[in-house]
Amino acid sequence: MAILPILTVPDTILKKKSKPVKKVDDKLRAFMDDMLESMYDAPGVGLAAVQVGKLLRILVIDVSPDDEDPDPHFYINPEITWTSEDLAVYNEGCLSVPEQYADIERPAECKATFIDYDGENQEIHAKGLLATCIQHEMDHLNGIVFIDYLSKIKRSMFVRKVKKFVKEKEE
Ligand code: ZN
What we know:
Elements: H1 26-41, E1 46-48, E2 58-61, E3 73-83, E4 87-92, E5 102-107, E6 109-115, E7 121-127, H2 128-141, H3 152-170
Antiparallel strand pairs: 1-2, 2-3, 3-6, 4-5, 6-7
The structure holds zinc ion.
Zinc ion binds next to helix 2.
């Protein structure tokens, strides 16, 4: 396994739309293992393939509490099929926008179809943090980062802070 570098805003790759996965094979599983390791290393609770520079419709999410065993799930070619009218606000963060957080309102629950790590079709009804996380990560597959929901002024402030953070980390 390997830790892959995570792209940060304003990298233009993050604006691109990811393509569906055609086949779930060992090569893809090896890449997904790397995604998982990179997410844990960061550390984060969700990661989309585009964030490590691969434009494929793959997410990995683990929202298990810190004091419990890891519970990672892979979502390949996910599609949101239903969202609740009820909304929920979470203070969201993103590995591509390190150290920055903002309240984002999204449907409180969602249903999604996807293909799992073994290539099987699955369906999920997500609530709470998982519902937020799936919607946040799904956005990445369509070239959207959570700061795109903020005002232009706030967004450019976040991007400026991220650039500074990345630069200081490199020094
Ligand atoms: Zn993100």
